[in-house]
Amino acid sequence: MKDWKNIISDYETENVYLAEVAQSIIQNVAYEIPGLKKHNQKLESTQAECIKKQDNARKRVIELDQEYKKQCQQLGIEGVKIKSEIIALAKDLPDQYEEIATEAKGLQAAVQLYQDFVQANLDEGVEIKVLENLKFLIEHGDVTTYEWKYGEKPVSIEHPFLEWQDDDKEESNEIDFGDDGGDIDFGDDIDFGDTDAAETAEGGEIDFGEGEIDFGDSGAEIDFGEGGDGEVLELDDVDTSAIIVEEGGIQGGIARDQDALSLLDNRRTRVIIIDELEELAGFLTQRLVEASSDSIKFDMVSSSHTQDSNTLRRLLDGVEGIASRLTELKMQQLQTLRDSPAYTDRLVDTFKQKLRLKEKVLSSIEDLKQKVQETEEERSRGAEQIKVLQDRVKSWREEVEQDISKRYKGRKVTISGA
Description:
Elements: H1 2-12, H2 16-75, H3 82-91, H4 93-104, H5 108-120, H6 132-140, H7 145-150, E1 156-158, H8 197-201, E2 254-256, H9 267-292, H10 309-327, H11 329-339, H12 343-407
Parallel strand pairs: 1-2
Helix pairs in contact: 2-12, 3-11, 3-12, 9-10
């Protein structure tokens, strides 16, 4: 105890303790507390920035959802099993072509109007054919390219093989060995014919039949009618009127590959028909402008072939409706799928890319939430540390004030700036 008093006495000699306390107060007031406050302000700024990023990320998730739903709606799928739904649409495309071909029959009046217009502007005796492929579609429907090319139906059609790998279908390739714990029944009652010697002695032998086989070797010969009283068959006497000999070439041919595709399913013929629809739409648009405007100084066709604007509008709407169905984004993508089944994976990837991006954004939201929570905890710890330092500085200041006051006979001492 005496040693400790000596240490305190030496420490208080020449006011060393006051200098040390003053140094600690200055260190905390000038550096430690301001540094902690600045760090907390930075944490608050980081926290506010993370909250703002969370809001932007949530908006981005909503945008991605809307884009995904819009993309699914454009293609006509629900987006649950993307690849299965797209493949199903591609397989049903021929049925849609049949519907379009049926609707195209309503374009007969528009095609005839265009034909009459062209014919009316030609010299007498001159005839020109227009929109032949569209006319063929209207008259015959969505028949095979073979029939369009050769003018006759094929005897048989060998459709091109289209193979799509459907990854969405869960198939089980395991073999069921029936491992239910049951024993194999080998059939102990099977009679393998193992007769003993006694049974053999009683006549259990196999009867091979000791009689001879008659192969008909009696020496008789077949009469081919080459002599004697037999009649000789002459080819001229045979009635061949009921026999049909098919010709070679395209007669009675088989539609294969591209020829087996329908007009609208074949990319080449489909483009031709779309071009003719655009040509017909351009003609009807021009005629509608002429019929609706009084300022046209020159009429392209004689008054005998004019149509009222309502009729032209109805015809134009029909043509544009067929053309738009064949050229809409959904139809283009499905047509590409049938032309190239490998395109399926690329198309599916465009859908999954949206989903992957959405998952990435959702993951970033969770990371930001975690960062906000960690920042808040660190800021709370910093605030507590600041309060501890402030209380400590306050306590030291009061002790120094009291010590100095004693030296000056109890005069009031106030230390400012701490």
